[in-house]
Amino acid sequence: MVMMQKIKTTDVNRARACVQWLIKNVGPETSVQGSTIRSEGWNLWTQGSVTDGRVDPPVYIIEVNDHVDDDTQLMFALKWSS
To answer: Cβ distance 68 to 26 under 8 Å?
Structure first.
């Protein structure tokens, strides 16, 4: 059994493409609140930070829940990991 898969990226275009892939292959979003998108099979949220008075680019964290089938989790990891 594959464990929950998670990726991080600062590239907004890559994060958007990943979400589109997840919508197509896992399922549509079920809620959007602030910087978080939730689905029954995946989640996306952003983290930002301020370092020495400057704002670092947001980090997009996207995870596929462990109840998603093993094949889809593996395809997610292979396609979207760096």
So the answer is: yes
Please name the residue that has the structure tokens 């952003």: 46
Strand partners, 21: none
Q: Would the pLDDT of 30 be above 80?
A: yes
Packed helices 12-25 and 70-80: angle between N→C axes, nearest 10 degrees: 160
Strand extents, DSSP E, the chain: 5-9, 29-33, 36-39, 42-47, 50-51, 54-55, 59-64
Whole-number Å distance between alpha carbons of 41 and 44:
11
Q: What is the DSSP letter of 11?
A: -
Closest CA to 26 of 71, 72, 61: 72
Q: Please write the tens of the pLDDT for every residue from 40-69.
A: 999 999 987 666 667 778 899 999 998 899
Strand 29-33 relative to strand 36-39, pairing:
antiparallel
